[in-house]
Please model this.
Amino acid sequence: MYTNDFDYYRADSVGEAVELLGDHDGAELVAGAHGLLPRMKTGDESPPALVDIGQLNGLDAIESSDGGSISVGALATHAEIADSEIVREHAAALADAASELGDPPVRNGGTIGGNLAHGDPRSDPPAALLALEGSLEVRGSDGERTIDAAELFEGPFETAVADDEIVTAVRIPTDDDAVSGYRKRRDPLSGYAMVGVGVWLRTDDETIEAARVAVTGATTTPARLSGVEDELEGSAVSEETITAAAAEAGTALDADAFVSDVQASAEYREHLLTIDTERALYDVLDVGQ
Amino acid sequence: MSDADASGASDGDGSGAFGAAIERGEDVPLLTGSGEYTDDISLRGTTHLAIRRSDHAHARIESIDTSDAEAMEGVLAVFTGEDVVESGVPNTIPTAWDLPGLVQPQYRMLATDKVRHEGTPVAAVVAETRHAASDALEHIHVEYEELEHVTDPVDAVERDVPPVHDEAEDNVAFDFELGDADATDEAFADADRVASVDLRQPRLIPNAMEPRAALADWEEATGKLRLWMTSQNPHLHRMLLSAGTLGLPENKIQVIAPEVGGGFGSKIYHYPDEAVTAWCSMQLGRPVKWQATRSESYLTDCHGRDHVTTGEIALDDDGTIRGVRVETHAGLGAQLSQFGTATPSYLYATVLSGQYTIPAIHCRVVGAFTNTTPVDAYRGAGRAEGIYVIERLVDVAARELEMDPAELRRRNLVPPDEFPYESAAALVYDSGEYERAMDLALEHVDYEELRERQRELRDEGRYIGIGIGSFIESAGLSPSGLAGDLGAQAGGWESSIVRFDSTGSVTVLAGTADQGQGHRTTYAQVAAEELGVSVDDVTVVEGDTDRIPQGMGTYGSRSASVGGGSIARGAREVREKARRIAAHQLETSVDDIEFDDGEFHVAGAPDRSLHIQTIAHEAYLGHDLPEGMDPGLEETNFYDPENFTYPFGTHVAVVEVEPETGEIEIERYVAVDDCGEIINPMIVEGQVHGGIAQGIGAALYEGAAYDDDGHLRTRRMDEYVVPHATQLPDFETDNTVTPSPHNPIGVKGVGESATIAAAPTIVSAVADALEPFGVDHLDMPITPESVWRATGGDN
Amino acid sequence: MSEHNISVTVNGTHHELTVEPRTLLVSALREELGYTGANVGCETGRCGACTVRVDGETIKSCTRFAVQSDGAEIETVEGLADDGELSTLQEQFQENHGLQCGYCTPGMLMSADTFLRENEDPSREEIRDAIEGNLCRCTGYHNIVDAIEATADQLGEQR
Model:
């Protein structure tokens, strides 16, 4: 119930937050606290210091920029993202994931930056970010850099965001000819994804020109499903294509990539991944079923 | 027969309170945040207790070093089991139910020799703040010698594992038999068919939303202990603390149960933790508070169920049930909790006849010690496990006979004219109209049409299932003499005081203890009806041993029948005394006084009358009472029922199963309950709803598991689900009313019925849906994966 | 150990207090300020008994440190009734028997109250989604859904 004792610093700017992280060994960032605090209560994490960026101004903006992308401030809550018309229009998969995450108070409290930096493999946004080929804008003591989704998820609760870096925004490229979505099979126990599939497709109505499909929840690390993507790209928009593509869901993943727990075995998750990939594709494509 | 002993429905004249859907008087404080739960109460100088628990399932304690923890800022004291022993208190957590040959190992507040399950208390820290107490825990250094452990009740007795207790080398705490083995063997030999099922009923964690808590205040000057705690039975806690654990005279202990946030059995028991809280206050002379975390609840609140069973049923080809044979290994956990022995023995085996006429029944239960959290009664306790077995057997038999499961039930129901019915499992059922309730439930779902729709859908590759759960419950364990013969160390009675105050209001002091059931409302309805006053004139007081002289508490669906029965009897005594005063003051004989709507009047002369509230005033004035009558208008009642009551009913569920994923969707859930006379239909419905939710939880979601290291695998709320709003359907409820003939107000109780019914009903529905796949049973919790595997999805 | 001075407004009343960094918002409300309506039912942010409104949005107050709420406007169950007059939602919970032991009720009410501000005519399914983060072990939710539905109807009639 109780966390360890720690020192608390409130940052008034991103720069100050970076400085505070550098000054205090082992310090962690906190904003919504929804990822970190429960893990501190169970003793899974016990940082000596927390740097609070929850009250930084301007980091929660959701904006569409001219250069073919949208920017979601790191402090935007899941509820704000789920309700954002900009996200719904340009990055539906992220809006879906945000609206499926946790429950209403959790969506009000948790922030997208913290969620993605935390790297919880059961969480919903990672699959959306991977499918959308989004990226994180981060700032650290060495300045700013961009981390592409493909480089972000390194393992369970491990991401490429360094200890002294702050996520400032999530950037997602937009494409008017693309559709995207996220389908979740909720773990009845935890409410996290037992299987979550994010899809992004560009079509000319007859042919799938480009495809990006990603999984969360089923695997120990969120991942792209390249077997599905290869099958989809260049194929006709049809039920046959969807069936054939979904059948490839597990092929590019290692056998030990799947999570096994008290609710669902790896074998079952692998089975569900095929089904849910198929259903996620039907969700976004105007075909059959 | 005196008026006070009259049975049947409430015969009080007047207010019409009994049977009305009155809103609950207890709601306003709870809706506004002002209701006080134990942790909401603070005394000046309150200190905080945190308990260091064993991380091991089974280990010998080699040493405990508390010096680092003691040196920490804010820490007042760190105590070990040795400190408790040295204090000279009796230091026993007693069992409350003996069985023949029962092995009763030592059970202390804090472990001194071995830890026998993960979560065993080994040391206690008292500090000025919660943070300080919690911080100190990890600075207590405990050295253990780990021992091999066992968590499964079958493994415990059949595998060569070290004993949990040296006193029970084979880990058998008891080997219990009920029924006639020879007659059952004969019935099986004679019958046309035998069907059987092997099943497990997993451990359930009660999960009252309020975790357990205690606040103890020892007053050295008077030698008195006040203990606020999350209790379903404050008087029982007072008795066990006095006689078993602390050695204080009972009249020097006050146990108070303030608002209690749910119990479902888990707050019946006398656990080490609350006792340690009290003991620490006695050592330090300061108030001490302990509030369990949810994780502590998972590790220490008594779990329920944990049965491994083989059941067999013998039938003739026409569906007549000839006999039932059951063998069960019941996990008891590492220690014997108070009713941990009664629950899997008498409360279980005696209901195996269910609603059916079964000539021969035999049941054997091996109670096994395991290195797990103690197991005791959880909502439905014993009856839930027993009804689950008989209902699974009936379904499996119907499949075997290729007979409709409703029809097979119908052919074997105990008919209404057979009551009182003595079952082959040693109970005498009081009353029942089983077919009426079953028909009503089937009617609600349009059973025949539904079967037709099921056939049609199957042709389309869709699988719906219709589940039926017909149940009885033995509620309100009694009479005391019978309970004693069976081994109970407590009575089955209930006590109350019904008191007119001098200005005409009524105070009811009841020995039961509410945790959400709404006693303050229903008891007021019972008293108001009997006394002819308004419900608003009645105040019900519970949960304080200094205010309420005696009581047994709230569990086993007993409050309405035994507690309510006591209040009705007391109120009738009060009314009769008032009648004698009325006769005296109206100058006529008692026989000429009629009572109507609170008014005593002379027969044939309605204008010569006195209201009962006026008489109350006269009774306390004492100026003009019948010769020899003592002043005052109150009665203390002890009610010891002549028998259990037997609620019953039939629940029907309609589910759709998607074989491809194993997902189960509950389309409809219909509950028809008969709990005898209904005091408040709104509250009865609420009890049924909550009971269904817990039964569905058990069927589809819940189940505690241990890992290979003997650690609880489901140790947090995101690992063991309490069903949430999106996981449960709307419920459709209905009632039939078959009064209990022996209860003063005709009620039977309803606290556990729906939990008992819902689990077999849902399992029945899923198995029914999967008939085309040849699946006749799946163990709980039925996860989508287990459905997927059962239908061959993994091949 | 460092301590921090913070100020919060709870149900319109301004409070200043000193907290350790690790003091949870729910602990500050209950133990420092005496708002014991919000309850603690778990430590994983699952049960929702501690749900309060912070700056207009529901959050689980066990999943936030008090120090993070410096300057916040907090609303708790104690603020729902108006001068002793129950709100429509509270009345409907009583009328529909939407509570039994009452432990989850403060959080449940805060979630429902907030939901109804933005959803005038919700379906039962939407209501169930809205209270997904608030666990109740007593009622099976049916009557809670009834109570929220009835509140929406009644508020709709008043509009």
